[in-house]
Design goal:
478 residues; mainly alpha; disordered N terminus; 0% strand
Length: 478
């Protein structure tokens, strides 16, 4: 089945038709070369955006640590992390399912379903985020003893709750752009421009007025979002018009929402695990330790943005291969992607072992005490890289239900291990909890992919990078 040209954004190329029978699928597997070049090119673009955005965030946190002090930085980290976790939850998992439903409906030229999915996702996410924001203010009101004095309220958390609906919309619209291969609109606002604008505001404010605080920086973080959202909407709307033209929205609300909610646990562990861990840690660690723990997490996650870039470009291509039953092409694509993920990650962990203390010292002399924590968090990223893009495969192939038990147990383990280890060992205990949880869900999901999808996604799949002409790939028809 081929994707209609009309269903593609203006800057995308229509994929060639791929037959589902074994003989033609082998030839299609050897035709992956051109597609793989496009995959690498767009991976590089997204990778550069991630590198730029991560570098800007890193510089911002260094300046905040030196200008505000560790305690204020720790308070900001807790507020921002809570905001990101809540905004992700209020999207109800629709961003995770958008690539699957929008891309595959567009491939079948089912424009009514595309229009319905986009509208329903916006409606449900907006309502859920407003409820979360109001619930957050109710929590703050209870926390300050039902006092009506605004001065007594935690300013950083208050602005964080205001930002929940805005960040939810940003996540949702970024996923819509990704699903139609508009990678610039998908990643530029959320992964680069937001970080750049915040850095500029922080620097100007400090140089002109000084006196930065956690609540003030959180206000800056939230205040810029409406401007970014307007620009993103204008850009995305041009790509979505061909898909919605003449369409009458058709709704499968219960099916979409049920599937999306199943993916919500997956999103927490693959995209917002840092924020979830820091939010939990905020209830156990003092503000100064929160700042050091955050610096360790952000340094270790310098590895993850490379994985994220590869996964972002992988999803649309893998979705098409799954829809057409091209097992050989899927195995080849996944094998190559895993090699791109693992070896640079291994080098990065070696760098953290050798020079992690010096890296943390940039934040301040006291931050170097987190070196061992940094190494353990780096090992967690290496586990993810070695396992392969297991979550993307299960999501796009419709096997996400099989992963629910794994993520449910991982969530319980995250709460239990952090609650047990953080009070005893501080941030080192939190890092150990993160590593153990990461091992649990990655090994479990790898087993599910091998059993239900019939491919090998781990770093051990090197031999499948170039499909053999005379042998069928795992999971292909015989």
């Amino acid at each position: 089945m081929s994707m209609p040209v009309a269903a593609l954004p203006p800057d995308a190329k229509a994929p060639s038709a791929v037959a589902a029978d074994p003989a033609k699928s082998l030839d299609a597997g050897h035709g992956m070369a051109a597609s793989f070049k496009s995959f690498v090119r767009w991976s590089a673009v997204v990778f550069l955006l991630r590198v730029g955005g991560t570098a800007l965030t890193y510089v911002t946190y260094i300046l905040l640590a030196r200008w505000m002090g560790a305690a204020e930085l720790g308070n900001y980290v807790f507020a921002f992390s809570a905001c990101m976790v809540l905004s992700s939850l209020t999207t109800l998992g629709y961003p995770a399912s958008a690539v699957r439903f929008v891309r595959q409906a567009a491939a079948r030229d089912q424009r009514n379903e595309v229009a319905g999915f986009l509208r329903r996702g916006n409606q449900l996410s907006f309502l859920a985020s407003i409820v979360a924001m109001l619930g957050g203010f109710l929590f703050l009101w209870w926390r300050q003893g039902w006092s009506l004095e605004w001065q007594a309220m935690d300013g950083a958390l208050a602005w964080a709750f205001v930002g929940v609906p805005l960040f939810a919309i940003l996540q949702l619209h970024s996923s819509y752009a990704q699903s139609i291969s508009q990678f610039t609109a998908a990643f530029l606002p959320s992964n680069f421009l937001r970080q750049l604008v915040l850095l500029l505001i922080v620097v100007v404010w400090q140089l002109v007025w000084g006196g930065l605080s956690a609540s003030l920086v959180m206000l800056f973080t939230v205040a810029m979002l409406p401007f970014l959202l307007v620009g993103q909407h204008i850009y995305i709307d041009r790509g979505l018009k061909p898909l919605r033209k003449g369409a009458t929205p058709a709704y499968r609300t219960w099916f979409w929402t049920r599937t999306s909610l199943e993916l919500q646990l997956l999103v927490l562990f693959t995209t917002y695990f840092q924020e979830m861990s820091l939010t939990i840690a905020g209830f156990f660690l003092p503000a100064e330790d929160m700042a050091v723990y955050s610096a360790c997490f952000r340094t270790a996650n310098l590895i993850s943005f490379g994985l994220y870039a590869i996964n972002a470009i992988l999803s649309p291509q893998a979705s098409q291969l799954i829809a057409t039953g091209n097992s050989a092409g899927l195995q080849s694509l996944i094998a190559r992607a895993t090699q791109l993920r693992f070896w640079p990650s291994l080098i990065a962990v070696a760098v953290l072992v050798a020079g992690g203390s010096q890296i943390l010292h940039i934040f301040g002399p006291d931050f170097a005490r987190g070196h061992l924590t940094l190494i353990i968090l780096g090992m967690s990223q290496l586990v993810i890289a070695a396992a392969g893009p297991v979550t993307q495969i299960l999501t796009l192939s419709g096997h996400q239900t099989q992963s629910l038990l794994a993520f449910a147990i991982a969530l319980v383990a995250t709460l239990a291990l952090n609650a047990a280890l953080l009070p005893l060992f501080g941030m080192l205990g939190g890092a150990v909890a993160s590593l153990l949880v990461t091992l649990i869900w990655n090994l479990w999901l790898h087993r599910i992919v091998v059993r239900h999808v019939g491919i090998t996604p781990s770093v051990l799949s090197l031999r499948h990078c170039f499909p053999a002409r005379k042998s069928a790939m795992p999971g292909s028809a015989s």
